[in-house]
Amino acid sequence: MSSVNGDPPHVFDLLGQALTVARRGMEAEVAGEPHHLRGSHLRLLSLTPVEGMRPTDLAARVGMTKQSLGEFVATMQQAGFLQVDPDPADRRARIVRPTAKGLRLQARILDILGETEHRWRDEVGARDWSTFHRVLRHIAAGRAPGDESR
Description:
- The protein has 150 residues and is mostly helical.
- The chain contains 6 helices and 2 strands; from the N terminus they run H-H-H-H-E-E-H-H.
- This is HTH marR-type domain-containing protein.
């Protein structure tokens, strides 16, 4: 695939394509399981800590607005994967956490993610995978590769 002007795809297109491949693989792996969740729901579940998290913090963690997160949580709650309880430290606040059913699917998701990483590492080689992973960690932390000063 090339860009609009015929140049090779830019890095954001490549990252998007890689994430699409991963999402489709994840959805295919869990397709036979008794739910009708999309990749974005599976991602939310994979990033929801066992101990739970306030919706505002969870929204920031997954990169969603609090309103969008609320819709996703409502869907996941109705399907029995997430529960929302009062925060024991502040009864006005809420905590979102996986249910037992959610924890089982979360474990499956994490297994699939691990299998995908292993497969990709095998395809590109351990050295290139290590470099790729290091660069992504730096970018995600807001640093350029080799910039340890921040």
